[in-house]
Amino acid sequence: MIILGVSASLRNKRFSYKNKLVEDLNKINSLSELNNFVKDQIKVTFSDMEKLNDKKLSFEEKYKELKKHKGDRGLSNSETALVYALWQASKEDNIKTDYLSLSNIFENENSEKLNHFKKKFLSCDALLVSGPVYFGDRGSLTQRMIEFLNSDKDCMKHAKNILYAGLAVGAKRNGGQETTLIFQTLDFLNLGCKVIGNGHDTTAQYGGTLVAGDIGKLVDDDYGIKTALSTGKNLGEVLNKIDLKSEKDEKNSKDHRCNIFVLQDNKNQECTNIVESLVKNYKDKKVSFKIFKVFKEQVHKCIACDICPISYGDRKEYRCIINNKDDFFKKNHEEIINCDSFIFAAYSGTNFINIKTNYQQFIERTRYLRRDDYMIGDKLVTSLILSEVNSNRNLHIRILTSLMRHHNILTKPILVFKNANTYINIENIKKQFIDFFKTAVKVKKDKNKVNEYKPVGYEISLEKFLLKKKNKS
User: Fold this and answer.
1) What percent of the chain has pLDDT over 70?
2) Which of 49, 129, 182, 204 could serve as a FRET partner for 402 with CA atoms 20 to 30 Å apart?
3) Burial class (CB in 10 A: 0-12, 13-18, 19+), 9
4) What dihedral angle (degrees, nearest 10) is formed by the CA atoms of 372, 373, 374, 376?
5) Backbone angles phi, psi at 265, to 5 degrees
6) What's the average model confidence in pLDDT over 57-70?
7) Is 12 left (phi over 0), alpha (psi -120 to 50) or beta?
8) Partners of residue 149 on adjacent β-strands
9) What angle do the packed helices 177-191 and 140-151 form, to 10 degrees?
10) Is residue 140 part of a domain?
11) Neighbouring residues of 30: CB distance < 8 A, sequence distance ≥ 6
């Protein structure tokens, strides 16, 4: 399995086609060695720049001079983030890594460079993108790469068979890293990629979020580096449990159960009807379904208690502090967690007239499932939205970004558009529904694996977590 790491900064130092970055990383056996390697490479970067300072050149002139170097030494901030993630990914079984500088491809592009990029992309099983933040969004090199992928039929076909994860570098802790990663997540989902974030060891967010303004400063961001390491580790682990290129017919798979939660619907239950029709017409009997009409249920609001979950033990036990017998989670806990994939469905209207919803209550109540070692994690998930034209409520985005926090694997949202009383893309939706399960059944089940939730920002929860670890040992 090959992870292609691409650095998307104009400041890239490793821009040579034949640079030895991956070869250098393969020689490093410990994190302390990696830290020393990074610091040494940053010194090289500063040394190159200091030599130019004596010439009293403008920044643009310095930049042009730096590009004349061989491009096989030093590290920019984006490359530094990528180095940590790639090194950690390579420690997973069966994982090999590759590296490419986008500045060498798309800054002054030509057919030879584009063909080189395409060859690299078509040979990878996962794409790991590291780049700077510009006003809460990606830089122009990342954008150009996405445009190229969307314009090439071979790349678009291959994108459906790969994983994607991202790293974003901003000048401050809240410098737009998460919005950048979310926007890129949507772009790569639309390409057909399956998307993951960083791992449970850094509380399952949207990817690596790192802080560095001036060149060389990223090495000081201990937490950011942890998110990069965690992203690489998660990418390697997921690659080892899902073979997206496999041509095996899903009918040969073991029994697979999908839970579909209808969180919001109108008075005619149109979203529910579409879901029921898709399920009824799905031919593979190895896949079974449970449809929950959550919008009709009592879903009590989460009170964000400081001892969530209230106890540890058998996962079949309901352990949320809310104990009302009519509560949806109280009644259905065991069925909720007893599945292999999820679809979260909702009706999106231009207004809330005749809309019944438990969407927000449901999402916030999954807090106890996340904090109980990501109880619904490691599954393929998507959103299915029946949207009136011009509703613009972005439910598909909100659902998927919430599920990313549960340590899941995201796939392209299923969007049904309604104009007046007509569903204008229903045939495409049927195909997407089938495609979802072609992928979902490829996710290997490992019931013994537990992703330990590590509280960040909750001192009482942290004390409880540490006590639990002590008791285990």
Assistant:
1) 94
2) 129
3) buried
4) -70
5) -150, 165
6) 71
7) beta
8) none
9) 10
10) yes
11) none
Asked if 158 and 276 sit in the same domain, the reply is no
Same domain for 366 and 314: yes
Q: Is 407 left (phi over 0), alpha (psi -120 to 50) or beta?
A: left
CB 263 within 8 A of CB 345: yes
Rounded distance, CA 440 to CA 378, Å?
Answer: 11
Mean pLDDT, the chain, whole residue set:
91
C-beta atoms surrounding 260 within 10 Å: 22
pLDDT at 251 over 70: no
CATH number at residue 151: 3.40.50.360
pLDDT bracket for residue 439 (50, 70, 90): very high
Which one of 214, 239, 264 terminates a domain? Answer: 239
Same domain, 213 and 285: no
Task: Tell whether 31 and 104 lie within a shared domain.
Answer: yes
- Do 285 and 227 share a structural domain? no
What pLDDT score was predicted for residue 48? 74
What would you report as the CA-atom Rg of the chain, rounded to the nearest whole angstrom? 23
Q: Is residue 458 part of a domain?
A: no
Least confident range from 226-240, 400-414, 450-464: namely 450-464
Q: Which residue has the tokens 């599920």?
A: 403
234-235-237-243 Cα dihedral, nearest 10 degrees: 150
- The answer to whether the bond into 413 is cis (omega within 30° of 0) is no
The encoded tokens of residue 158 equal 């291959």
Domain holding 300, by residue range, is: 250-440
User: By C-alpha distance, which of 97, 145, 83 is closest to 118?
Assistant: 145
User: If 0-12 CB within 10 Å is exposed, 13-18 middle and 19+ buried, where does residue 375 land?
Assistant: buried
Identity of residue 256 = H
> Which residue do the tokens 């042009």 mark?
64
Residues 157 and 269 in one domain: no
| 446 within domain boundaries | no
Instruction: For residues 363 and 450, give the distance between their C-alpha atoms in angstroms, rounded to a whole number.
Output: 22
Residue 218 carries which DSSP code? G
In this structure, the answer to whether residues 167 and 299 fall within a common structural domain is no
pLDDT tens string 123-154: 999 999 999 999 999 999 999 999 999 999 99
Per the domain annotation, does 453 fall within a domain?
no
Long-range CB contacts for residues 17-21, cutoff 8 Å, separation at least 24: 17/104, 17/116, 18/72, 19/71, 19/72, 19/73, 19/99, 19/101, 20/72, 21/72, 21/79, 21/83, 21/99
Q: How many structural domains is the chain composed of? A: 2
> Which of 218, 239, 260 is the endpoint of a domain?
239
